[in-house]
User: Fold this.
Amino acid sequence: MLLTVKSGKPSGQQSLIRKLLWVIPLTFVAVLFYWPISKITSLGFSGDWLATLSEPKTLEVIWFTLWQAAVSTLVTLVIAIPGAYLLYRRSFPGQRFIKALITVPFVLPSIVVAVGFTVFRNVHDFWIELGLTFLSEPVYWIIAAHVFVNYSIAVRTIGGVWAGLDTEIDEAAELDGAGRLRSLLSISLPQLRPAVFSAAALVFLFSAASFGIVLVLGGGQVQTIETAIYFSATQFLDLEAAAALVFVQTLITGAAFLVGSSLAKGTVGLEQVFEGTRKPRVDRRDWPAAVLTTGIVVGLLVMPMLLVLVEAFKVGDGWGLTNFANLGTRGARDLLNISVIDAAANSLRNMVVAAVIAFVLGTLISWLLVRTKQKLLDLVFLVPLGVSSVVLGFGFLVSFDSSLFPLRSSWLIVPLAQALIALPMVIRLVYPALVSIGREPIEQASLDGASSWQIWRFVESGMIKAVLLTAAGYAAIISVGEFGASSFLAYGSEGTIPTLLFRLIARPGEQNYGMAMAVSSILIVSICTLVFFLKGVSPRRLR
Assistant:
């Protein structure tokens, strides 16, 4: 990229180097994503996959996956729109704190979310007093947990676009006597349609590809495609059945992604960098949105995390630090292969490797996409966003045991899978930020004789510095909390925090339960701290 550009159009040599740079990320996703997906797809077709998919139990699993994802998406969007309005269209004290707070559930490890809702669900007397005895059914808790996780992504996707819309039309409608609800339905929602469709596609994909939440909260009573793949591959050793289910999951992912992309008519970032002019303060007419959003934040988002923190310090009928002291052990009756402390060291090592790979490749891909008018390339790198980590873990399991790619015997297989999972998130954050810069600063620097590297170093990277830091932080958080792929790949001494946490919560016993609460509380506090730091340094607008 060390080239001197004298005009707005790239030279032949510059174009050649950009094509060569494409080889790096394309090779990465081809080997680590498309090869394993094609491998398990061919494995599924090699057996009697039609008979497998036509079995009543399999059809029931597919149907449950689809309808719970649809309901989770609908509920999330309905409650996210008032939140997006309040947080991105109005201003009030503590707004930045609330924005950071609602981000925490999205980046929490799925297994920690499941642990939190397990504690929430176990408050039997409270639900009985309210007359909500039907909440003993696991499906309600699964949907609630999905809303908990995806609320932030819907609010940020819709709110990021909403913040940049012109306020003059709303003000004119207000002068004509239109209320807030009428303005929302007649003016705002039509303009927000692309963002709503983009958010709906993402929430549906994440809910359909949910694994840890369904595995723990389902308790074996209900299964999605993800858990069925896991049990088929690890317990029943039926790789052909697992591969057939992967094929169905891939079709669902592709269909949802294509429908969402076509309806959105473009790439909508997780949160736009520019938020427009100063927003008016909250007034009395905003109280319905304020009450609803407050109830969601406190009752649905904060309460499960607080309950975990409380449980972490409970020891029998009293309180203490025993649960934290036990983290140096292997649990009751040596349940674990390694201690939680050793697993934490593995997780931190994997996090560093995965975050560096995801950040470097994601930034490079975003930089190249801005200079390439090929939507297909955007799709190539964003498809892994909708493919679950369980599918990737299973794909790695069956693809990298040959002499050609002997990764299964190396600890690197886990961070490589985690890097692939975090990569689309980095692109989703960095690419819209680079687009928002516009062509003028880049063309001006080119005319002044700056090379491509100098333009990136002194112009582009400086203007989106906070976004880059946020992308790196989220890549690290996603990597350290990844559970689906690790459940297939991290065994024995290579266990990670999420895999050990699942073993602790899945086995009865006061010591194991207490250790699970202690681990979850540490992760919650650590991730909250990191998210608050990242959101604190993010500017309100691009300068």
About this structure: The longest helix spans residues 12-46. The longest strand covers residues 314-315. DSSP finds 24 helices and two strands in the chain.
